[in-house]
Amino acid sequence: MAQVSGRRRISGWLKMTILSLLVEGPLHGYAIMKRVAENTRETWTPTPGSLYPALNELLRERLVEEREEYVGKRKRIVYRITERGLQFFLEKSREIRLRTTPSILGFLRSQVEAMKRLGMPLDDVRDLARHIDNVIEELLNIRLELASMLGDRGVSRSAARPGPPSRS
Asked: Which of 49, 12, 56 is nearest to 33 (CA)?
């Protein structure tokens, strides 16, 4: 990893993951590790050796703040995203979305093409179709939330479905 003023630079991915969890509400370090594990279906759990340096960097950048909380006699530190952190998260999320959406769509198209060329078993094709259906369902839920924020309260699930993308 790159060095910054003698310190190891923390992965932007880990920082964005932490911020995305804190957008939902304050969490202590162990809860952050557990939520990452749950959200990744146990494929990734940050270690304390990577999580706490990332949290300290977010604190230095004033993207999160901490407070002490007592559970019985045990003290733990709870982290909360700041307004500055919310702005940073939204800006970086937009950059990530613009960079990754074309590559994700390209990857899925390539997967379909490879399946066609290899004559993949129907179970594999169905599995990919189910995965895409699940992603579409989640995107529709997000679209409905956005419509609600915009005041489009009459938007139904079918109206939230956009038409096919233009190929211009």
From this structure: 49
0.85 exceeded by the pTM?
no
Measure the CA–CA gap between 146 and 134, rounded to whole angstroms. 19
Fold of 3-83: Arc Repressor Mutant, subunit A (1.10.10)
Task: Read off the pLDDT of residues 86-124 as tens digits, 9 standing for 90 and up.
Answer: 999 999 999 888 888 888 888 888 888 888 888 878 888
CB contact set of 33 (below 8 Å; sequence gap of 6+): 45, 46, 48, 51
Tens-digit pLDDT profile for residues 51-72: 999 999 999 999 999 999 998 9
Q: Helix or strand or coil: residue 81?
A: strand
Domain ranges of the chain: 3-83, 98-160
**Element holding 4 (H helix, E strand):** strand 3-4
